[in-house]
Amino acid sequence: MLGWWNRWPRSPFVRRPEPWTLRRALRAAAAGVGLLTLGLLGLGVAGALSTGALGRVWNLRSELLPIEVQDRRGAPLGVIDHCREGNAVNAVPCRESLSVPLTGVSEAFLLAYVAKEDVRFFSHPGVDLGRLPRAMLSGAGGSTITMQLLKNSVLAGHFDYDTDRRGPLLTVARKATEFVLAPLVTWRYGRREVLAMSVNSLPWIGIGQRKGVYDASRAVFGVDPADLSLAQSAFLVGLLPAPGRYLVQEDTPPETATARFRWMRSQQLVTLNILRSHGLVSDGAYAQAVATPVQPRLWRVEYAGSGADLRVVSAARNPDYANEPEPVWAMQELVRRELRRAGVDPKRVGRVVLTIDAQAQAALTRRVQGEGATGPRAAGVAEGAAVVDVRGGGIVALASSTGGSLSSDPGRQWAASALRPVASTVKPLLYALAFGDGVTQLSAFRDGATSYAGQAIRNNSGGFLNRAVTVREANARSLNTVAVQVGTPREKALRRTLDALGYRADSGNTSSVSLGTYRAAPLDVAAAYASFANGGTRCEPHLLAEVYDRAGRPLSLPRPDCAPLWDEVVAYETFDLLTGAVSSNVGHVKFLRPTAWQRLSGRAMPLGAKSGTTDDVNDTWCAAVTPQYAMAVWIGDPDGRQSVPVSLYRDQAACREVGLLRDLPHDRTSVPVPPGITTVGGVAVPLPGLNPSNPAPPAP
User: Fold this and answer.
1) Where does the sequence pass through the membrane (predicted)?
2) Is 602 exposed, middle or buried (CB count within 10 Å of its CB: 0-12, 13-18, 19+)?
C-alpha cells in the first residue's frame, strides 16, 4: 500500500523518509544535546538576570570577605562576616560564623574536602562536564565546589534552596544558573580564592545553625580549623551531605543513636578511602586516621577493636556537653548595627578597631561562663555583663551566657538585649536627682511604715529601723521606705530621667518607680553609672573606635553622643554615695573592699557599687563604678518565669562579678573633686548655701 505522501505530485521537496541509521541517530542526538544546552544556557542567563546574581557574583568577594576586627590596642579579635537580616536574600545567611583564611585551615581538611566534593576542582573552569548530567538530574549530587558556593551565597533564597519551594523545574533552573555563573566566578577570582570562600560558607545547618569550617570544627571537636587532624577532617567532610544527622538528643533511643553514629563513621571511612585511592595521603596516614577513635563533643562513643578493625560499639549524647556561642558572634551583630547607624555600609568596611579591651573581654567572658568568682550557672539562668569606659562611653567588655540554651538560639546577647526590671540599682539615680533638688547625703528620713498608692512598702529585711536615717545609710542598707519617700514627690522627674537613659517603663507594674520597676539592659545601666565618674555627663555606649574601608582608608564616624545628665557637684556626691555603700559596715557589698594585696599593688582605687533584686527574685543585679570604668551585671531568667537559685541571691553573685573592675588597668585612679564640694565627717556634700541644680534630661 502506497504511503500518504504518494498522493502528492512528484516534487524534489517530497521524498520517501530515509531509514534510521547509526549515523543519523548520532546526528539527531548531537542536535538534541545542542538544543538542550542552548536551552539550559538561556535558562541560566534568565535565572542570573532575574535574581540579580550577575552583579553580585562580580562583587562576591566583597560580600563574603570578612571584616578584620581589632581591639583598642590593635590586638586581633578575629573577623566577622557580612550578612543581611530580616527577609532579605542573604549573601551570607546570618548564622554564627567566623571566617578564616586558607592558611588557617589544616591541609588535611582541604585535601579531604576537595577530594570528596570535587576532585577535579583545580582542573575544570567551575563546571565539571563529566558530572553535569548527575547534577542536573539529582539537584544535589554532581555539583562542583564553585557551584556549591553559588548555591550557598548569591542563589540562597532563590529557586529551591533556603526557600519553602520544591520541584524539579526549580532545581533545573538553579543548576542552569550555577552552570552559567560558575565559570565567571572561577575566571574572576581564581581557584584558591573560590576555595577559601567555599570552606567559610559550608552550610552546617544541622549543627546549631553554624556555617563554615571554623564554626564546624569548634562546635564538633572544640579545636581551631588549623588543628584539625586527618581523622577529624574526614569526619566533618563526611557530614556534609546531611549535617543534621550529627544532632542527638538525650531521649534518642540507644539503638537509633548508635546506628546514626555508625553512619557518620561509614562516611568518614568513605572520605578516607577516596583520599587514599587518589594518592593524596600516605598509607601510614590513612591507617592512623582509620584507627583513631574520634570523639565529637556532643557524643559519647565506645569503640572496640583497633587499627583497621576499629568499630563503634555504642554511641549516645554526651551528658556533659555544653556549647556556648562564640563571643564574637554576639558582638558582630552589634558592630554591623552601629555601622549602619553611622551611615557606613558594612560591605565597604575592611577593618574596624573596637573600644573593646581583649584582656578585659577574655576575663569577663570567663566569669560569665562560670570560671570566675561565682561558679557555673544553673540551667535556665542567664547572665549579661557590660563594662564601659566612663570617658566617652566606649564598651570595654561585653559578655553574655545563653541561659542554658544551645547556641542555635542566636542573638542571645543579654548584656545588650535583656530588658529586665532594674530593681534597687535605680536608687542612686533617684538620689542623684534629689541631690539636684536640695537633698544631700546627710539629709535624714524616717525608716518606718510607708505606703505608695495604697501599697505597703517593705524593706528587704522585712522590718524597719523605726528611726531617722541619712540618705547615705539608706542607700547602703537599700531601704525601700526612704527611696519611696524621696521618690514619690519626684516621680515625674525620675520617669523623664529614666526615659532619657534608655530605660523602659513597665506598664504592668504598679509599684513605685523608685523601687526599680523600669526595665533596662546591663549595657544601659553601666552607661548610666558611668556618668557619676564623668562629671555628670552620660555618653551613649558604643563599640566603634575606628573604621577603614577595603583600601585601608579611614571612614568618618560621628562623635560619641554625650550629654550632661547631672550637675558636676551632684555627680561627685553620688559617686561618693556609691563608694560609701562599699565601705559602710551596714552595706551589702563589704566584700568589694580592696584586699591587702590590692592595696600593695596599687589597685585599691575607689569603687562604688549598688546591688538589686526584684521581689520575685527573677532578677538579681549589681552596678558599679570606678574613676575609669562602670560595670553592670544581671543574672536571672530572661523570660521572667523562674527565680534565680537562692545561693546566687544570698552570695551576691552579681556583685562578686564586678570585683573584676579592680583587676583592670587604670590610668585614672581618682575622680576630680569639683568646686563646691566639701566633706562633713568624711561624707561629700555641697558647700553651705550652694544649691546644685541638674540640667534638663536630654531627649530620649
Assistant:
1) none
2) exposed
Reading the block at residue 277, the C-alpha cell is 585511592
Q: Is the pLDDT of residue 258 over 80?
A: yes
| pLDDT band with cut points at 50, 70 and 90 for residue 119 | confident
> Is residue 544 within 8 Å of residue 339, measured between CB atoms?
yes
3-state helix, strand, coil in the chain (%, to 5): 45, 15, 40
pLDDT of 612 > 80? The answer is yes
Spell out the residues 6+ positions from residue 97 whose beta carbon is closer than 8 angstroms to its own.
81, 83, 200, 210, 211, 212, 214, 215, 329
Higher-pLDDT residue of 464, 168: 464
Q: How far is Cα 297 from Cα 84, in angstroms, rounded to an integer? A: 31
Look up the pTM and report it.
0.74
Written as nine digits, the cell of 299 is: 557524643
* pLDDT at 698 (0 to 100): 83
Q: Grid coordinates standing for 297? A: 563533643
Residue with cell 583497621: 308
Total count of residues recorded for the chain: 700
pLDDT tens digits along 401-457 = 764 433 334 446 788 888 899 999 999 999 999 999 999 999 999 999 999 988 999
Is residue 373 scored above 70 in pLDDT? no
Q: Are 365 and 327 in contact (CB under 8 A)?
A: yes
Closest residue by Cα to residue 71 from 477, 345, 432, 396:
396
Q: Long-range contacts: 56-62, Cβ < 8 Å, 24+?
A: 56/91, 56/154, 57/150, 57/154, 57/181, 57/184, 57/185, 57/188, 58/184, 58/188, 60/91, 60/153, 60/154, 60/185, 60/188, 60/189, 60/197, 61/189, 61/193, 61/197, 62/347, 62/550
d(CA 642, CA 441) in angstroms, rounded, equals 36
Beta-carbon contacts of 284 under 8 Å, excluding residues fewer than 6 positions away, are none
Number of C-alpha atoms within 13 angstroms, CB side, residue 385? 33
Average pLDDT over residues 230-252: 89
* CA-atom Rg of the chain in angstroms: 33
Distance CA 268, CA 232 (A): 9
DSSP string, 136-174: HHHSSTT--HHHHHHHHTTTTTSTTSSSS---HHHHHHH
